[in-house]
Design a protein that fits this description.
Elements: H1 2-22, H2 26-50, H3 54-67, H4 72-84, H5 88-100, H6 106-118, H7 122-130, H8 139-151, H9 155-167, H10 173-186, H11 189-202, H12 207-219, H13 232-248, H14 252-265, H15 271-286
Helix pairs in contact: 1-2, 3-4, 4-5, 5-6, 6-7, 7-8, 8-9, 8-10, 10-11, 10-12, 11-12, 12-13, 13-14, 14-15
């Protein structure tokens, strides 16, 4: 991080030295400094949006926006930071202000729809997306369209939107997982399993897809763990999920056995599995 700042200081120093040597007036020197500051600020804005504490980024962009209220890039930065900080109520207000700005784009409207969905205001999100021209084709737009179609139980539309979204990204694991979960809720277990497996292939660390895969198998009475990459902790957690799925199907003894396996597998005390097993055994004793 020190190199860009060092270069900027050198450039600024060179500009000032040149002014002394050639008799450049103060206004021109100020313009040179201003150009350097814009470069540094752009780098800092990008850093604040990608690393560090999200709440610190919120504070940074709040100050910057207060000093430059007409700049949409700073307002966008604030809105994005609020989403990262999970301050969704504030984020939806910030994105609404971005959309109201004269320089707003269709991409900003997609971000507003995303914030509205996070705030559980699905109807408002649908209205925002419906107002965006169909020529605006992005991964995020179609992923949100698919989620809304899911909520409306418009399965054909949902499948179509999911398929388009998958084709518009180089990192499709999250949307494949969402699509699989949609299939799972419809009872289409075979397709759900296939989509979860595809999601894990693209992102072997995506635990939610592994857990959903276990739930899809458990719903069919298949209590064997899938052959996917997993840590010891993940294995214990998946056994726990499988055990609960077995109990839900009425296979209580199998479920208890899976919960015991989860307790033995976990490298530490697995409190959640212990409580579930104790509740099952207590229920058996009292009946």
């Amino acid at each position: 991080m020190r190199h860009p700042i060092f270069v900027s200081v050198c450039v600024a120093g060179f500009a000032a030295l040149s002014a002394c040597e050639k008799g450049i007036d103060k206004a021109e020197v100020d313009r040179k400094f201003q150009g350097v500051n814009v470069v540094d600020e752009t780098n800092l804005n990008e850093v604040m949006l990608t690393v560090g504490d999200p709440n610190e980024a919120v504070t940074y962009f709040q100050r910057a926006h207060a000093d430059n209220p007409d700049r949409i890039d700073l307002l966008r930065g604030l809105a994005l930071s609020l989403v990262r900080a999970k301050r969704i109520t504030e984020a939806r207000v910030a994105w609404a202000k971005v959309v109201d700005h004269e320089d707003s784009t269709d991409g900003d409207r997609v971000q507003l729809a995303d914030a509205l969905i996070r705030a559980n205001d699905w109807d408002a999100a649908e209205k925002v997306l419906n107002a965006i021209p169909p020529t605006h084709e992005t991964y995020k737009r179609y992923r949100l369209e698919a989620m809304i179609a899911d909520g409306n139980k418009e399965w054909k539309k949902a499948d179509s939107f999911y398929e388009v979204a998958v084709g518009l990204t180089t990192q499709p694991a999250p949307v494949l997982n969402n699509w699989g979960y949609s299939k799972l809720t419809r009872g289409d277990f075979d397709d759900a399993e296939r989509l979860f497996v595809d999601a894990i292939k693209h992102d072997p660390k995506l635990f939610t897809a592994k857990n959903n895969l276990v739930l899809a198998r458990g719903a069919q009475g298949n209590y064997a763990l899938p052959v996917v990459p997993m840590t010891q902790v993940e294995r214990a957690e998946l056994l726990h999920s499988m055990g609960l799925a077995a109990v839900k199907r009425g296979d209580v003894e199998i479920g208890k056995g899976l919960l015991r396996d989860a307790l033995e597998t976990h490298p530490q005390h697995f409190e959640t599995a212990a409580r579930a097993l104790e509740a099952l055994e207590t229920n058996v004793r009292t009946n």
